[in-house]
Amino acid sequence: MKWLVLIVSTLLLLAAIWGGQFPLGVPGEWTWSRLEAPSPLALSLVIPIIVAASFTGFAWLGANRIDRAGGWETLAWLGGLVLAGIGWLWAVQEAAPQPHNLSKIAWVLFYPGSSGYFTEAQAIRDDRQYLANYEQVMSQGDVLHLGTHPPGLIVAYRGLMRLCDASPALVDLLNSALPDSFSEMFDILSQNARMGFRQPAATDRDAAVLWLAGLLVHGLAAFTILPLFFLLRRDHSPRTAWLVAALWPTVPAVAVFLPKSDTILPAFAFGFLTLWLHGCWSPAFRRPSPGELTSVPNDRLKAGLQPLLCFAAGFVLWLGMFISLALLPIAFLAVLLTVWDGWLCRAEDRIVNPARRLLIALTLASVGFLLPIAAIYAATGMNLFAVWAWNLHNHAGFYSQFPRTYWKWLLVNPVELSVAAGWPLVLLAIFANCRPRTEWRHRDSGPVWACLTTWLCLWISGKNMGEVARLWIVIMPCFVWLAARAFSSSVGWVEARDPPVKTRRRPFFSLSLILRVSGSVFSGGSRASTHPTNSTHPTLLWLVVLVLQFAVGLSIVLNVGGFDVPMPR
Question: Is the pTM of this model over 0.85?
């Protein structure tokens, strides 16, 4: 029955995408635009279908190898999966009608109406003075892009500009690699700059900066696969973590809203979350399950990595919040999961001595978070805490200038989120966690409670009334995370088969040892081996969901516009 619901409901969604004329939002307040499908349509589908088949084949090969792979090999496979994800995102965008194909990298990043950070960075003459005055600029009350964001993106653009200014060879290399769609759009930008767009003339260096920024955004968007894989390894086998993490690039919203910065936030958000959970609550700190074998030397090595992981978690959180405060919900989610693992789950699943360990982890993470803030203040005088306060104040003022109807968006937002994340993935996550009531205090139920509570707080708060397909990209990896349990026998999708886990000789070289220990920390210890790793049904389920996600994502990219094309003034 679940298979039937999954397939039929997705087919109905596809029919609605291609044939429906209903508004995509709330008319008069906010709606997404509809695109005219490219002509001929069949020709536009060829390359995405070929790339999707290649992606599927690579993921299949990796799934058959990942359980036996060592640390370095696992990282190599994950790197290949990231590249495959970039390939899919690239192909599906290029299939969209002009100017919503890859040409959008140029105009979305160039024009202030759709972004503004490139333009702002272009006008800076003194970097230190600009940051010193940033708090004053925020106090002016801009409720759109700049006023609601810290200066991280502007600093990043300044860095790319300096890099291109210092390396003419890099500029030449980047310009020689521009796709035709981007080059044609950049020529239009140059013409518009001369026709009254009030923009500085677009140069070859600007083209290189925009293209390099676009490449970095695509890379970071796909890079989210890595933290998702290691997050999934807390409770699942390498095979399950691999298959489920591979679903991330198929989330439609990522392709629709590239190259906006919203698409890179999951990499920082779930990078922080993964580092924090593994740093704060290592398998070495958990009570072993009945029959679980532990190794004291290995546990000591794992525990020795905790200071580094906690410090890195704090730094990654700062780095993400230097770009956007959209990471705050993920920080809240991390708090919920930390409390769950230490105090709220079943007594036999809880962390040993949670208060002492949490105090140590918080101290180390705080150092990683506060050090760059102090360094920025010492170098420029910018008080980042004050900037964040103004960002929140300005965001709250958005709805006074652009009124929205709360109850309408209360109904629309869950629907928009489900479609934007990919209905097959969302439905899989829902079905995967329909579990008996007796299991709701198991430790592995924590992600369900934490993700659901975080989303409910966002939804009911009314902080995002409109554009949640873009604004909530930062929480969309939660569906990937929660979907992993669909590959467990207890939810009625699959028949479990547990092959014995082979033991392997540990390497003697210190670097390899650290890498393997890190992999063991990220895997959640031998506990993960209790999950099924091989079965016909999980692979078939994954394949069906992957194909349906490809179909939904391609359909949405071809029919829905994430940006309004600016017209000359």
Answer: yes
